[in-house]
Amino acid sequence: MRTPFIGGNWKMNLSLTEAAQFIDEIQTQLPPSDEVETVLAASPLFLHTMQEHNNSPLLVAAENCFYEDEGAYTGEVSPKALSQMGIKYVIVGHSERRKYFHETDEIVNKKVHAVFRNHMLPIICCDETMGRYETGDHISWMVNQVTAAIRGLDADDVKKAVVAYEPSWAIGTGHTAPADAAEEGCYLIRQTIADIYSDQIANQVRILYGGSVTHENIRELMKQPDIDGVLAGKASLTTQEFVELANFYQPK
Fold this sequence. Notes:
12 helices; eight-stranded parallel β-sheet
């Protein structure tokens, strides 16, 4: 019942020319949006150009935003401005934002509210480190991040959110979580939401896995009952790989 979600996060990669060329190249190769929702998140510098070139089911998303709509916040990205551009999704709480820019659970929660306030949808990332995974502390760590991120939201908003389980030890390392471990993380997220709201709400939330996703492992990941899609990093930087991810359900 949940439409598969295949997302890419370019991070601080590609140029404006490369971004436009990328969109041009994938125009006719993506599945219909009612079969698979395809989303690419990019630098705010690229978003307008990507939208101008886009004539496909692809949705262009933002990698980040601030939690205030406007003000004296030099260098930040206004969620109000993103909404006025027609952006639908914004990534919030990525592990790299937490690590390098010291974003706390409180900041992530404020950003989630700002995204909804401006009629967009958040892709909420939750993280775990290898150290926590090896000591068994990853469960409480991850559950706490999810709980904090959705604090204060009403049920109608929560069911429209997308949540991405992204163990930082797998991001950009080539070490993908085994499918059963990825499923465990996504299951725990769904159960956390169910405990706070209800099973009915939790079963409408799309939960993604992110961490060294490739065309070689996506099919096994997508077989899992609680994995509704992926959020790819490196694999979203080439047109061939992204198109293969988007068409994961097609026979090889």
